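Summary: Need help interpreting a holo structure output

Steps to reproduce:
1. Submit the protein chain below together with the SMILES for magnesium ion.
2. Request a joint structure prediction with the ligand placed.
3. Inspect the structure token block that comes back.

Expected: a single structure record containing both the chain and the bound molecule.
Actual: see attached output.

Input attached:
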Amino acid sequence: MSPTDPIAAIATPPGTGGLAVIRVSGRTAIALADTFFRPSGPASPPPSECATHTVHHGHVIHAGRKIDEVLVTVFRAPRTFTREDTIEVGCHGGAIVTRQVLEAILAAGARHAEPGEFTRRAFLNGRIDLTQAEAVADLIHARTERAADAANAQLAGHLSRQIDPLRDDLMLVLAHVEAHLDFPDEDIAPETTARLLERVEKASAQCERLLRTAPEGQLLRSGARAALVGPPNAGKSSLLNALLGQDRAIVSPVAGTTRDTIEETANIGGFPVVFVDTAGLRESGDTIEAEGIRRSHEAARAADVLLELVDLSSPPAPTIAPVFHPLPPGRRLRIGNKSDLPIDPAYHAIPANDLIRISCRTGEGLPALRERIRQSLLEGAASSESASVAVNARHQDALRRTQEALDRAGSAMIAGASLDLIALDLRIAVGAIGEIVGKTTTEDLLDRIFSTFCLGK
Ligand SMILES: Nc1nc2c(ncn2[C@@H]2O[C@H](COP(=O)(O)OP(=O)(O)OP(=O)(O)O)[C@@H](O)[C@H]2O)c(=O)[nH]1
Ligand SMILES: [Mg+2]
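--- attached output ---
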């Protein structure tokens, strides 16, 4: 499998649509198009004689039969997504006709692309680095505008522009240390060591700054789960509806309205959060309700944040089977609903910080609650206003290893340890930081990253 053999895939989502796009990339992609595409008009040249970035009308032909009327766009390397010659066929968007066009292209000699293979080629051909390749997938999967903005920033190279200079500087420090390794009789001058140490410490601090964006990166990409729990009639379903801005769950004055758990995603400060409404917690003889309550506990255990709701207008219910959850206190928010009604004296003395007062009826306190949910999910991590850099789990792991190696190298410098030892850790740091942008990679790592892509990307 040569890296330039022609590959093809449907680039648009499966199903029915007005149009679909099939992409072909590889050294012989344009010559292939000559065999499956017949341009309209007797004088029209075949794709191989067409200029780059031009669109042509005609038909896809398979076994002598016209399959579909299409537009073919010719892109010549290197000004293409993969940096290879590329053909895009815009055909009708029916599931069958799209499949037939793809089959005609495969019959002409293209191979079906693996998931992410176009982007992998863009990376291998040096058009984008690994963080940008990952950003392509992030952008496709973004569920909020903020997540899309962050993906676009990464695609534009914001993270690379932090990583590349960091790696370059560490390589210079390493080169310096290695130069002295070659001349063991010459010691590094103390003032030189101090300067090198300063650069190592600065790099470690920069890793730390980037690591602090990891909770935000995780939230933007994967979102979070929040479970609404509490006694019957506290207003859990009302709160779900209020957060979603839609009438999703049944609300009624009957205690025990919600039986099954109900999930729906809402945008909380730009983060996709799945809210799970649950059955009210109480002792129940009703087998269906008891099953609902068992599911409430299950939902609570699976949640990243727990919203424990009470009804401020009635005395606290005797706690039955308290919700067990290993969450840190910052991830459990106690909420008092129905602040529009006369408040039961039992709640008077509880400070606002420990009991967030809201009213689903009037909307009072809801913006503050959204903000508290957002903060608790970020675990106090600084959230950048622009979301211009937010590292993912892979970057986080590489940054941690970089930082650990740098800290070991720094300590070794301070202790006056042998240059061999210092050079070893610096090499580990350079390797680990290089993994982020793809300067140091393995086939394995690339397989892992690109296999998560959709087909045709
Ligand atoms: N006055 C007032 N009533 C509310 C408020 N929120 C909910 N209610 C009422 O409280 C009752 C119960 O609301 P639900 O949202 O069904 O409560 P729940 O916690 O989902 O109840 P279960 O599903 O039975 O566990 C309904 O009659 C709501 O209209 C509020 O903020 N103020
Ligand atoms: Mg309910």
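--- end attachment ---

Reviewer comment: Residues 64 and 371 are 63 Å apart (CA to CA). The mean pLDDT is 92.
Status: needs-info
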